[in-house]
What does this fold into?
Amino acid sequence: SQQGEEDPQALSIQEGENATMNCSYKTSINNLQWYRQNSGRGLVHLILIRSNEREKHSGRLRVTLDTSKKSSSLLITASRAADTASYFCASGRGTALIFGKGTTLSVSS
Amino acid sequence: GAVVSQHPSWVICKSGTSVKIECRSLDFQATTMFWYRQFPKQSLMLMATSNEGSKATYEQGVEKDKFLINHASLTLSTLTVTSAHPEDSSFYICSARDSDKLYGSEQYFGPGTRLTVT
It folds into this structure.
């Protein structure tokens, strides 16, 4: 029951660069959330943006939401090696979350 | 606050046996909990929604007799993988919504349970 695609599937950058990940979803949503997962570990909630919001910031994170295009983007600025992880968007459908396929980010120092 | 635990964190079992995985909300009550499975290098797939005091709602393609879910209290949901087979080997993750929070708020995820069936 995956909702949509994430783009790119993998991203490799140098420390200090910005990383942008995109996510598309298929059905109407209440909110969209971004999560981070380190290899073999649980998920860490990063940020939630509601369907009536267009942009949200949290520290080095910036999330946008375009409900007309059913898409969202996550920007991580001034990336660090510790940002290396998989990032997933999850769209809220009622009370359940439907996850995208994820983007694997590698940040090299 | 908002901590969800899972037990065990990893388990190895033989084909044909059953395995129970527990998901607990430690500092909040959760009327609703969710179970996901994740294959290596893939995303999370929602398996079922666990509702306290009632039957779980399973996603299409998930066998309810294979994956038994019980949500007997506001802080505990269990997933039992019955008659496990090697193809059931996966990472199982639960999440919980805080019953006191507004509709559509974030879910809190457990650390996951890695199941290996030999």
Observations:
- The two ends of chain B are 37 Å apart (CA to CA).
- Chain B has a mean pLDDT of 91.
- Chain B is about 0% helix and 50% strand.
- The longest strand of chain B covers residues 44-51.
